[in-house]
Specification:
- Strand 11 and strand 12 form a beta hairpin.
- The strands form three sheets. Strands 1, 2, 3, 4, 5, 6, 7, 8, 9 and 10 form a ten-stranded mixed β-sheet that branches. A three-stranded mixed β-sheet has the order 13-14-15.
- The protein has twelve helices and 15 strands.
- 30% of the residues lie in helices and 21% in strands.
- Helix 8 packs antiparallel against helix 9, helix 8 crosses helix 11 and helix 8 packs across helix 12.
Length: 419
């Protein structure tokens, strides 16, 4: 079995013979993308995902990983987490959220609080034993969201703000939000709040915020400014971080000379271009033309000893580029300033640990040392730390990865000799 020091989800599944796993689609996507975790998923009997919309592509990934029984769970916190569930079988869309669980009632209602016919979109309301009393010291919001049940006198129902419709087979189909609220890694975000905060500090023209998934499986919050002036993206993100929770700070801020418009002369959010691949202080452009990449980081700027300077930095930079989908990484860049988040940090931790041969690398190192130069120095110091009195033979001249792998083989041989 896995070593006791391995506390990953995959290790826990194997060590304890886990048969049922519940997680968010974001976490499920991360597990499916990792080779070790993906192999462990095949040992599950049931996998329950919820808290976010379930992408169809993820369903296929999980099936390919050996997950046979996949349950799509739906329910807001205000109705005690889960309210409906659906077994996603072959031929059933991932948008299906199923039927209400026990002691729960679901209604699809129109603006007049009348039930919508099968196939007609309406707002989803939830009643039953799971409905909460309301929001703590928020009487006005409670009155708006928790209403008397028009079909059961004396009981209440909760207004989810989600759009849904009944299918002919009696299952609920999830459509999306009825307002500007979105979900990012389980957190609810009001796009209007992000736009208001950015408008207050930018001093530029109109701004809009959207969720984008330009790289499959990586959903990010992106903000756009309509301006003809250069924009310091990093400085705007730093200022927003003092006003908003971290989850609400856009991963990217893009300057455009003009927003694309619909025939009704409203901002066409669906036509907004993807962010340029490289982050810098950029001038606005009418098209998504990436700015030139920075030169590769200079190994001499990373002050480490032992291995050829920059060996770990080169490897880490490559991993960051792959995970974040960017062109270049400099020594002073921070993983989170480049658009990284907690789920990507977990993937970065595993990649760095496996590629550099560091089984004891802690996930806290990724969060505590987000700057490339600092993390590289920490890792290279560990790779070059002496483990015995005898000198280590000099490494042959090779590229960065060959040096690291050669060092790894030497350390393993020495450990075996000492044992």
């Amino acid at each position: 079995g896995p070593p006791a020091s391995d506390r990953s989800i995959a290790a826990q599944i194997r060590r304890h013979g886990i048969t049922h796993l519940q997680c968010t689609p974001s976490m499920a996507r991360m597990l499916a993308a990792d080779a070790v975790s993906r192999a462990a998923l095949g040992g599950l009997r049931h996998m329950l995902v919820g808290g976010e919309a379930l992408p169809a592509a993820l369903v296929e990934e999980l099936r390919g990983a050996g997950v046979i029984h996949l349950e799509n769970m739906y329910g807001p916190t205000e109705t005690t987490i889960w309210s409906t569930s659906a077994t996603i079988e072959a031929g059933l869309p991932a948008t299906v959220i199923g039927r209400p669980i026990r002691n729960t009632r679901t209604y699809v209602l129109d603006a007049q609080m009348s039930p919508c016919p099968v196939g007609v979109e309406g707002e989803l309301w939830i009643g039953g034993a799971g409905v909460a009393r309301g929001y703590w010291e928020r009487a006005e919001l409670t009155a708006d969201r928790f209403r008397p049940d028009p079909f059961r006198p004396g009981e209440r129902i909760y207004r989810t703000g989600d759009l849904a419709r009944w299918r002919a087979d009696g299952l609920l189909d999830f459509i999306g939000r009825a307002d500007g609220q979105v979900k990012l890694r389980v957190h609810r975000i009001e796009l209007g709040e992000v736009e208001a905060a950015l408008d207050a500090i930018s001093g530029f023209g109109p701004c809009v915020a959207v969720l984008r998934e330009d790289t499959p499986g990586d959903t990010r919050l992106v903000a756009y400014l309509e301006t003809t002036e250069p924009v310091d993206e990093a400085e705007l993100r730093r200022e927003l971080a003092t006003r908003l929770p971290a989850i609400m700070v856009p991963a990217r801020i893009v300057a455009l000379e003009r927003f694309p418009l619909t025939p009704n002369r409203k901002t066409d959010r669906a036509a907004l271009p993807p962010p340029p691949a490289h982050r810098a202080a950029v001038s606005p452009t009418p098209t998504p033309t990436p700015t030139p990449a920075d030169p590769a980081p200079s190994p001499a700027t990373i002050k480490v000893t032992g291995l050829r300077r920059g060996a770990a930095a080169t490897e880490i930079a490559e991993i960051w580029r792959e995970l974040l989908g960017i062109e270049a990484v400099s020594p002073n860049d921070s993983f989170f300033d480049l658009g990284g988040h907690s789920l990507l940090a977990v993937r970065a931790h595993r990649e760095i640990r496996d590629r550099l041969g560091l089984p004891d690398l802690r996930i806290t190192d990724i969060f505590g040392l987000p700057r490339l130069a600092d993390l590289a120095a920490r890792i290279e110091a560990e790779l070059t730390a002496p483990e015995a009195a005898e000198p280590v033979a000099p490494l042959p001249s090779a590229n960065a990865r060959d040096e690291i792998m050669a060092r790894r083989r030497q350390l393993r041989a020495r450990r075996q000799g000492l044992g």
